[in-house]
Design goal:
This protein is of the alpha+beta class. Helix 4 packs across helix 5, helix 10 packs antiparallel against helix 11 and helix 12 packs across helix 13. The protein is elongated and about 90 Å long.
Length: 408
């Protein structure tokens, strides 16, 4: 009897020792932070947490660090040459920062073996070393979320089979989900991003957005060598902002892009009618419009030809938004000053009309405001054509009236 009791005690002790070892092992979690209001936080954020029960370390590894004070930061950002940094911060510091912002943080604990967890920790510690921590950031294909995804996939033994939604997405439709409450930011994205963001994505490619990766992890399983499977996520906990923290509300604007577009079009039509009745052209308006048109074209053309940002070099808007109006402006002003017709108006009328006509067949989703602006510019060209066409007809009519009749 004593031997049986002793055996039971030994077995219990071994079990408790094994449980204690697991409790003091390494735990890896994927952190998904809810979106903020700043441009760089509109789509949320992903990081990875490593808790080591043996050493007491509780670190968050963050691939989304950048420094505004970097030399020529703005210039490099425009050119798409922005470098991000992988750095680690204590968990307590990380979670306090997001509580202050009013953002929630979802913590998905991964179901890893200790060998896999050790590999994750070593992988991340290599990445924060000075010689490895800097990487070339790419918002659509190489960002804080894709870096975490690459880390987990590289360290897990077996294949990760994700749980995908069946809904087809493009980059643009995904971005619109997160900028719906910020119409001007959405319009700016749509103005700069070209046709490449309108192609249907693979399921994995959608995981450049933190929420999409989180949802994919929820139902993911690891398939081993012998077709055995285990859930990748064991539990999920959501840390919410404290009650005294008030998150900023979305933009509430009267002057939305659609509103401004309608106003510009109505003013263009009204100005066209006034010019027809008054039989004179208010060409100073066109000086302002052509200058703004040309400057917007300079910006778009610059990023189209020189920026390394993804999807900017496939923008069909560069056909109608380019520096050409600035080149033509002196000649148009000279002709208007002398009350002469300029061929620029005929050329632009045909060019803009053809572009608008073929928009339904273009592989790019056009921004609403850009379409309104183009229609408004078209009214200006038509006003000039109408004005000088009527003036020419009037001159011909006058000549016919003053022609003496032939005697019989």
């Amino acid at each position: 009897m004593k031997r049986i009791l002793l055996l039971i005690v030994v077995i219990c002790a071994c079990f408790m020792a094994h449980a204690d070892t697991l409790a003091k092992g390494i735990e890896v979690s994927v952190l998904t932070c809810s979106p903020g209001q700043e441009v760089y936080s509109l789509y949320g954020h992903t990081a990875i947490r490593v808790r080591d029960g043996r050493t007491g370390e509780d670190e968050v590894f963050n691939y989304g660090i950048f420094d505004f004070n970097t030399e020529h930061f703005v210039w490099k950002f425009v050119l798409g040459e922005t470098d991000y940094i992988c750095a680690s911060v204590p968990w307590n510091y990380f979670i306090r920062e997001y509580e202050k912002r009013g953002s929630s943080v979802a913590v998905q604990v991964l179901n890893l073996t200790q060998a896999e967890a050790v590999r994750v920790k070593e992988y991340l510690y290599r990445n924060v070393q000075p010689e490895n921590r800097v990487y070339r950031y790419n918002f659509l294909t190489n960002n804080c979320t894709t870096k975490v995804m690459d880390c987990v996939e590289a360290c897990v033994e077996g294949d990760i089979v994700y749980s995908w939604t069946q809904e087809p997405y493009t980059y643009r439709t995904i971005l619109h989900k997160y900028t719906e409450a910020y119409p001007w930011k959405q319009e700016g994205n749509d103005f700069l991003l070209g046709a490449d963001v309108d192609t249907v994505l693979s399921h994995r490619a959608t995981c450049f957005i933190p929420d999409f990766y989180k949802n994919a992890l929820d139902g993911a399983v690891v398939r081993g060598e012998f077709e055995d499977t285990r859930k990748l996520v064991t539990s999920t906990q959501v840390w919410r902002a404290s009650d005294n923290t008030v998150a900023k509300s979305p933009e509430e604007l009267l002057a939305t892009p659609v509103t401004i577009g309608w106003v510009s079009l109505v003013l263009g039509v009204l100005l066209m009618g006034v010019e027809y009745i008054a039989r004179r052209m208010f060409w100073l308006v066109d000086v302002v419009l052509m200058t703004a048109h040309g400057l917007a074209g300079c910006l778009l053309s610059f990023v189209f030809f020189f920026s390394q940002h993804p999807a900017l070099d496939s923008n069909w808007l560069v056909l109608v938004f380019n520096p050409l109006p600035l080149v033509a402006l002196p000649f148009v002003v000279k002709a208007a000053w002398r009350d002469n017709f300029s061929l620029w108006h005929h050329f632009m009328a045909v060019w803009i009309a053809m572009f608008l006509l073929f928009i339904p067949w273009m592989p790019q989703n056009m921004p609403v405001l850009a379409v309104f602006v183009l229609v408004t510019l078209l009214t200006r060209q038509l006003s000039y054509i109408l004005h000088y066409g009527c003036a020419k007809s009037a001159r011909r009519g006058g000549k016919r009236k003053n022609t003496p009749k032939k005697k019989k």
